[in-house]
Amino acid sequence: MADVSHRGDIAHHPDVSEMRDRYARVLGGHDVALVDGPVFLTGLFCAISPWTIHFAANQPTLATHNLIMGIAIALLAVGFTVTPARMYSLSWAMCAMGVWMIVSPWVVGDSPDTGVILTNVIIGGLTFVLGLACTGAAAKEGRQPSTP
Fold it and tell me: CA angle at residue 82 from 64 to 121, to 5 degrees?
């Protein structure tokens, strides 16, 4: 049986520099981890808002709209968490989704009341601001020079 208890120093391993670079990328590549949670919660609230604010019965098209938009926002948040390097280039889409959420009660809804308008404006504003935060983080990562 081979002696596997010997653990030598890997400083002279041929792939040590590549392993160190990968380790640094994995640990330091995600600057806005604190934004992912609020983005997910905003999407979740958007999806359930027709039933928590009680406008699903009198605004069925807007209820379906908020459910679909909420799922889309939550899926973006999951994507930001799982593959941040690829997904943060889509963070500008959250800004557009936020603006759309603000105007959607008048476009999709049928004579919305104050509660519906206020809910969508708050959700849209949060989505827009969080999208700006993600966009800023993506731009900051793009400006940093890569380490040799």
Answer: 35
Each residue's pLDDT tens digit, 57-108: 999 999 999 999 999 999 999 988 888 778 877 889 999 999 999 999 999 9
Report residue 70 as tokens. 């909420």
DSSP structural state of residue 32:
T
What would the two tokens of residue 90 be?
């889509």
| pTM for this entry | 0.74
**In sequence order, what are the residues at sequence separation of 6 or more whose Cβ sits closer than 8 angstroms to the Cβ of residue 93?**
76, 131
Distances (CA, A) of 80 to 28, 36, 51, 74: 15, 7, 27, 10
